[in-house]
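Table 4 source record.
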Amino acid sequence: QVQLVESGGGLVQAGASLRLSCAASGSIFNGNTMAWFRQDPGKQREWVAEITNGGSAIYANSVKGRFTISRDNAKNTIDLQMNSLKPEDTAVYYCAAAVRGSTFDTWGRGTQVTVSS
């Protein structure tokens, strides 16, 4: 049973914007901190941003000022608005939830983002 489903990835040129979305089941979303991670082939998975149930957000230095994470608690969704994209932002982006504590233990299947120079 898929509980986190990402969408919105694609191929864009450097400087463009993309908006990723993640739809979650209520049992996964309600009250839990949600996050976006990314992984490029051959590299470790990288934390990008996270947002608490109350809406407090923090970001990796590599995306701060360019990406914005948001959540809609009525729709059980989180979004990642990505502006001023760079080729180094190319990766598979994953939505994650911290369901059983502070560790992100529930994951989506990912959506590919490719930024050409």
